[in-house]
Specification:
107 residues; PH-domain like; 7-stranded antiparallel beta sheet
Amino acid sequence: MAEPDFTATGVRIGKRLRSLTRAGQVRISDGRLRLLTSYGSEIDSAPVQAVRASKPWFAPQDRALADLNGTRYSLTLADHDPAPGRPGTSSARRFVEAVHRAARHGG
């Protein structure tokens, strides 16, 4: 298996008003986006070309939305600076960019 294009841990994954996990994982690898529980069980997955990812303008910096297989998931990704004292791109924005990049390059 190839190195993942994007990985985030400690992600709160919700569907509508329901929280599915508070410490899940988001992984983009081998042309697929996978949402996993903290135990590694798959919540949902889809080819990146079929995923819609967005960063709502009204939401906090650490929030992103992902539409997989007709289901909208709310993702709260932890924000980490790339180096101490240096502001970086939010994890949510990096997630959205990774989905768009992977879809453009065919997975």
